[in-house]
Write a structure and sequence with these properties.
403 residues; 14 helices; globular
Length: 403
């Protein structure tokens, strides 16, 4: 999702990117790739891993919330230009649904690719994955000046989507009980979780985009639902299969927080100077941290999406946004983050590239799977650098992976 600011008057013009947000997003995706790699390494200090079911959190538990928060900041910047241009509501809703479905498809592909049963699928795991990557490239990769070849672009997209559908239909896996089954919907992977949260928050935003107080009330409602869920007051929903009950209030609250933060950090309607933005951000961070502290008896857990974890991460994201706002946009210090800027402009491409060695057995040697200690850390860092090095030149030349 691109990050542009738009005039408050309603007339839309493409203006300069917000550098601090791009850098935040680029740093976040680089760190996300790194911690995903480190999860495969044994023998590291406890603070290098997710806390799992243990009460507490590490920096690793704060990476995914950062991505959710940044996605929320991008929602107004993605939808407002369409609203201001007078696009029909049906066309805007279609844009949201297509983007959601695309994220779900990518998430399901990554989550299932390593579980292909060659005998039942009549295709090896390597071939299924390679064809899936080709289909994703055809369907979602954007090239510079492709508008001059609209027929070719449309043909490529239809071919890619058709191939993905065919691969999903022939897919078979073996369950832990020894049965043959189709796609596993029990885990949508990070991209799928992003898709569901994007759909819920975008829906709320489209309904109430001009009414910030209602958006704030919606954020409060999501926090309250998260509290109720953590307390076990919504156990009736447990009987609903996960793939029909995918919305998680805690994750969605992080996205909605990003939407509200964009009004202050990127927009000027609430605060036009850095000092005003700083006061708003600091006040919000203190309030959220205080509420999270009060809710600590409910636990601090990423696995259970507890309210304290969500609120602490939101407060941290606000403070880090403020820091980058001062360093990058106010002071103009950008050169230190050149490595992260391309990933910030199109985070999906390096994220998917980083998964390729994990999905294809011949490339396993690039991954840190089965490594220990410093050797594993070195391989994790190397794979992160490799993902950025492969994707950055493509992004700089106008190649994008867009949903």
């Amino acid at each position: 999702m691109t990050t542009h600011s738009t005039p408050a008057s309603g007339s839309v013009s493409v203006v300069q990117r917000v550098a601090s947000v791009d850098i935040f997003r680029g740093l976040n995706v680089a760190l996300m790739i790194l911690v995903n790699n480190l999860a495969e390494v044994t023998g590291l200090p406890w603070w290098t891993y997710h806390r799992g079911n243990v009460n507490g959190m590490t920096y690793v538990d704060m990476v995914f919330p950062g991505f959710l928060f940044l996605m929320g900041m991008s929602i107004p910047l993605s939808l407002d230009p369409r609203i201001c241009r007078g696009h029909r509501k049906a066309r805007i809703w279609w844009h949201v649904l297509v983007r959601t479905l695309s994220l779900l498809v990518l998430g399901l592909f990554i989550a299932n690719a390593t579980h292909v049963d060659a005998q039942s699928t009549h295709m090896s795991q390597i071939w299924w994955t390679v064809l899936g990557l080709v289909a994703i490239a055809l369907a979602f990769v954007r090239f510079p000046q492709e508008n001059s070849h609209k027929t070719l672009r449309r043909t490529m997209r239809i071919s890619g989507l058709s191939l993905i559908a065919a691969l999903f239909m022939v897919f078979r896996r073996v369950t832990p009980e020894g049965h043959t089954a189709g796609l596993d919907f029990s885990y949508w992977e990070i991209l799928g979780l992003l898709g569901w949260a994007y759909l819920l928050v975008s829906t709320i935003y489209l309904l109430f985009s001009k009414r910030p107080r209602i958006l704030l009330a919606a954020y409060t409602a999501l926090v309250l639902l998260n509290i109720a869920s953590t307390l076990g007051w919504l156990r009736a929903l447990d009987s609903i299969p996960f793939f029909w009950n995918p919305f998680e209030a805690g994750l969605s609250s992080l996205v909605m927080a990003g939407v509200l933060a964009s009004f202050i950090i990127i927009g000027n309607s609430f605060a036009s100077t850095f000092e005003q933005k700083a006061r708003w951000i600091l006040a919000a961070a203190v309030i959220l941290f205080a509420i999270g502290f009060a809710l600590q008896p409910l636990g601090i857990s990423k696995n259970r999406d507890t309210p304290t974890w969500c609120l602490y991460c939101t407060a941290a994201n606000l403070l880090f946004s403020l820091l980058l706002l001062w360093v990058v946009d106010r002071k103009g210090w950008k050169s230190w983050a050149k490595f992260a800027m391309p990933a910030g402009e199109n985070p999906l491409l390096p994220y998917v590239v980083a998964y390729i060695p994990f999905l294809l057995a011949p490339l396993y040697w690039l991954t840190p799977i089965g490594t220990y200690g410093a050797w594993g850390v070195g391989k994790s860092v190397l794979l992160t650098i490799l993902a950025l090095a492969v994707s950055s030149p493509l992004i700089q030349r106008g190649v994008r992976l867009r949903v």
